[in-house]
Amino acid sequence: MSRLQGKSALVTGAGSGFGEAIAQRFAAEGACVAVNDLDAAKAEVVAAAIRAAGGAAVAAPGNAAKAESVAAMIAACVAAYGRMDLLVLNAGVAQRPTPIESMDEAAFERIFDANVRSVFLGAKHAQPQFKAQGGGAIVVTASTIATRPRPGLGVYAASKGAAISLTKALALELAPIKVRVNAVCPSAGETPMLKEFMGGDVTPEMHKLFTSRVPLGRLCEPADVAEAALFLASDEARFITGIALDVDGGRSV
């Protein structure tokens, strides 16, 4: 039997990268998926690909850092499938390497809006639905940089640290309504964000240098994160809540 059969899921930031892989993996395991992205066209492309592969998917575009958008995307998932069992709060933005001295407030706010406010709003607006149906599960995409900050990426690291702290607090707060809350923490991955983290085009030399620092010998791939998110969302993790699971090939050891 498929691991998510009979469940429905909303995945934010699912137009590319980790979110796209999570949406596709959940659908392959039987979940009906609402695909969110700020870019409506990207959300529809991913949803269409899931349907073409035999899965169930609808596009639910919107800004995951805006309350009205979050409420609307949750409503779209419930309207399509009658419930929302799983919420993957994956939407986020990267930081181009910038010293704190040169970081402007607008860039700081953009990063915290996308990476922290979106988690707060998702959890807040999902609670009435979870209460009504008797439970659910939330998976947050955080990052290993939260515990291993890097120069020039301090604001991004702080935002992901906040996301992990919020995950743990939510795990305690939502346990009485039978909602589990966990985070996956990828290291640098083979996604469109990699160029931003590297400050421009990723040369073969840069790629080789970074890969050499990972004990398992490669960068994190979207499929790696999707498998971790699938486990945390599934009933196999029914007694797991409040963890931040590193998906980093040993990079954080």
Explain what you see.
Helix content is 45%, strand content 13%. It is an alpha/beta fold. The chain has a single domain, classed as NAD(P)-binding Rossmann-like Domain (Rossmann fold, 3-Layer(aba) Sandwich). Helix 5 links the parallel strand 5 and strand 6. Helix 1 crosses helix 8 and helix 4 packs parallel to helix 5. The radius of gyration is 17 Å and the shape is globular. The relative contact order is 0.15. The mean pLDDT is 93.
Protein topology:
Blueprint: E1 8-11, H1 17-28, E2 32-35, H2 40-52, E3 56-59, H3 67-81, E4 86-89, H4 105-133, E5 136-141, H5 154-174, E6 179-186, H6 194-198, H7 204-211, H8 222-233, E7 244-247
Parallel strand pairs: 1-2, 1-4, 2-3, 4-5, 5-6, 6-7
Give a quick summary of the entry.
The protein contains eight helices and seven strands, in the order βαβαβαβαβαβαααβ. By secondary structure, it is α/β, with parallel strands linked by helices.
Low-confidence stretches: none
What count of helical segments does DSSP give? 8
Q: Identify the CATH homologous superfamily.
A: NAD(P)-binding Rossmann-like Domain
Rg over CA atoms, rounded to whole Å, is 17 Å
CATH class: Alpha Beta
CATH architecture: 3-Layer(aba) Sandwich
C-alpha geometry: globular
What series of H and E elements makes up the topology? EHEHEHEHEHEHHHE
Secondary-structure-derived class: alpha/beta
Helix content: 40-55%
